[in-house]
């Protein structure tokens, strides 16, 4: 380096922003050149001034950077969209501007009463990033309590604040040594702490503390602004929801008024269930299902699947208890009741959510449905009385004016000259109470009317006249269906077919005899016809209440030993006797029918002789044995 006679070279060093060590160069060169002491003193003074200028310029550049960072933070606040993004930006700037290894922020949790780590920058420890601190613990607790900044050059050895194992462990795992913390203030409250930390010892200048305080103030403003924005948005959402509710309520009130007028008109002009369902779905939208008390469908509008029976029962019970429609999943249920009687339910699957007024529409529809069902029941009962009186007159003796009876039948859609069967229902269909008897009669009336027939109560017994020729099938169907309704086995005897009013009384008498025969044969709870019982049925039909005891005694004295032998030994003596008598006493044909050897048949019949006596084949005894076998088969039809 050439020797200078003036401090110009220091200006050049300042101009190119040289490092501080380079400012020693001119003095070293001057001493080497042997310049006088006065000249060296002048250069030393110039160097000191130049270094001062250099330090001032560095501070101004740093201040400019800090102001730029604060400006950027203010810009972030002005365009605040996401609080987390703003807080991360502030913490990152704190780390960059202060030149620390780590910067982070903790916030107070008012619900849990502690402090948690909200944002970190430069952190490498997962444990440190998940720290939660009790209020008053650690350096942050001291800052929060006093509301003033605190700095420590060695966190682990500083005794000014309360140490905890959790905090010290997290700080130690992160490797932090020097920490500066400043409060986040909202008014007079401290809501958190902003930190700058280093993994080695370092001092924090007053300007750095002031900078971190400014950044903390911006962070507090961001948090408060976000809170206000959230509250504003919530208030606007509530206002919007209230406005929608008001509009929806106004609309639903108008719909309710229109629905009320429409359903009132339906009742006045005698509309049906389909009309009610259509009115409800037109007003509320969606699909609707109307069910009776047994869960059978009365009407359906739109696509809606029938719920499970258990779900219907539970929902209807809840609706009756609450006195309102109830919701179960996507479906609304409204009980259809008249006083304490359950008549059914309306099941609605709406397209949109129902408000209170919409629920009132559904409940009003349930009330209209109850009125229609009661009216329908009244009409049905009146028609049932007419039909019952007709059947009672048809089976009465003596029969009067058959032409008038035919005319009465034609008016209710019954052709007396078509084949009909008569079914007599046993007393086991109902308890002794009059209400149970009336319920059975009501069921029989509905059952017969649905099939174009008649039903009546005659001498305390229920009788049905049904179109068709299969008396046995009709008896079994009545016994089966009525058993389901009453919950107890029901016996039904039938006779027919009968054509013309003149023969109905005789057919009814035969049906009653068939019913008595079923009781005598021990076949209570079953259905059969006189044709199926044959001559045995005719004989037993006149026996009366003692028939069952007489049949059992007759069987025991006639073929009882054979029945007992088969039961004990698992043999086929009864089957062999039936085959033997069935083929006219031919051993060969009986063996062929039983698929056994003739000798086997002979041996079995010899065993029968041992059990019944050797005279069992004499004509009078053979007739009794055959009658007993027939009775035994009728008593056990499953065989």
TrEMBL record:
Signal peptide from the UniProt entry: none
Recorded superkingdom: Bacteria
Domain called GAF: residue spans: 82-233
Gene3D superfamilies: 3.30.450.40, PucR C-terminal helix-turn-helix domain
InterPro entries the record matches: CdaR-like_regulators, CdaR_GGDEF, GAF, GAF-like_dom_sf, PucR_C-HTH_dom, PucR_C-HTH_sf
Family membership noted in the UniProt record: Belongs to the CdaR family.
Protein name in the entry: Transcriptional regulator, CdaR family
Native species: Micromonospora marina
Lineage: Bacteria, Bacillati, Actinomycetota, Actinomycetes, Micromonosporales
């Amino acid at each position: 380096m050439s020797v200078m006679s003036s401090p110009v070279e220091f200006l050049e060093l300042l101009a190119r922003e040289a490092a501080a060590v380079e400012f020693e160069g001119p003095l070293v060169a001057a001493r080497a050149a042997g310049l006088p002491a006065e000249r060296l003193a002048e250069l030393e003074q110039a160097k000191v001034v130049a270094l001062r200028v250099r330090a001032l310029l560095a501070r101004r550049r740093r201040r400019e950077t800090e102001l730029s960072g604060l400006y950027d933070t203010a810009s972030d606040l002005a365009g605040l969209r996401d609080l987390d993004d703003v807080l991360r930006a502030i913490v990152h700037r704190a780390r960059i501007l202060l030149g620390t290894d780590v910067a982070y922020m903790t916030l107070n949790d008012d619900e849990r009463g502690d402090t948690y780590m909200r944002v970190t920058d430069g952190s490498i420890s997962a444990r440190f990033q998940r720290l939660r601190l009790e209020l008053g613990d650690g350096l942050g607790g001291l800052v929060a309590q006093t509301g003033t900044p605190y700095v420590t050059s060695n966190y682990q050895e500083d005794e000014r604040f309360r140490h905890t194992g959790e905090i010290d462990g997290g700080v130690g795992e992160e490797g932090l040594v020097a920490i500066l913390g400043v409060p986040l203030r909202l008014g007079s409250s401290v809501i958190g702490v902003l930190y700058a930390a280093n993994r080695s010892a370092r001092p924090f200048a007053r300007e750095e503390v002031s900078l971190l305080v400014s950044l903390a103030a911006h962070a507090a403003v961001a948090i408060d602004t976000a809170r206000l924005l959230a509250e504003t948005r919530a208030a606007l959402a509530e206002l919007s929801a209230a406005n929608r509710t008001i509009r929806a309520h106004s609309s639903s009130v108008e719909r309710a008024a229109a629905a009320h007028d429409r359903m009132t008109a339906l009742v006045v002009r005698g509309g049906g269930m389909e009309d009610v369902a259509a009115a409800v779905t037109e007003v509320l939208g969606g699909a609707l299902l109307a069910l009776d008390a047994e869960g059978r469908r009365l009407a359906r509008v739109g696509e809606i699947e029938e719920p499970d029976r258990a779900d219907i029962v539970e929902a209807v019970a809840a609706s009756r208890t609450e006195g309102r429609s109830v919701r179960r999943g996507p479906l609304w249920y409204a009980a259809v009741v008249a006083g304490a009687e359950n008549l059914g339910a309306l099941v609605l699957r709406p397209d949109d959510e129902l408000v209170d007024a919409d629920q009132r529409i559904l409940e009003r529809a349930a009330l209209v449905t109850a009125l229609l069902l009661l009216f329908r029941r009244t009409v049905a009962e009146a028609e049932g009385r007419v039909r019952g009186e007709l059947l009672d007159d048809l089976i009465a003796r003596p029969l009067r004016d058959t032409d008038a009876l035919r005319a009465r039948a034609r008016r209710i859609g019954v052709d007396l000259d078509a084949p009909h069967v008569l079914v007599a229902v046993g007393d086991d269909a109902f308890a002794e109470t009059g209400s149970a008897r009336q319920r059975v009669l009501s069921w029989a009336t509905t059952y017969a009317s649905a099939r174009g027939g008649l039903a009546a109560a005659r001498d305390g017994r229920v009788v049905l006249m049904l179109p068709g020729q299969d008396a046995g099938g009709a008896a079994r169907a009545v016994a089966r269906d009525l058993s389901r309704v009453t919950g107890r086995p029901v016996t039904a005897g039938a006779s027919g077919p009968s054509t013309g009013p003149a023969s109905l009384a005789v057919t009814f008498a035969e049906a009653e005899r068939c019913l008595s025969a079923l009781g005598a044969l021990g076949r209570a709870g079953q259905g059969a016809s006189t044709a199926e019982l044959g001559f045995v049925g005719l004989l037993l039909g006149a026996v009366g209440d003692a028939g069952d005891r007489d049949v059992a005694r007759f069987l025991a004295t006639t073929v009882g030993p054979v029945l007992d032998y088969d039961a004990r030994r698992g043999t086929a003596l009864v089957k062999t006797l039936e085959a033997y008598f069935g083929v006219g006493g031919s051993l060969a044909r009986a063996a062929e029918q039983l698929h056994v050897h003739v000798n086997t048949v002979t041996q079995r019949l010899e065993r029968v002789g041992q059990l019944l006596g050797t005279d069992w084949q004499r004509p009078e005894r053979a007739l009794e044995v055959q009658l007993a076998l027939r009775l035994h088969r009728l008593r056990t039809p499953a065989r």
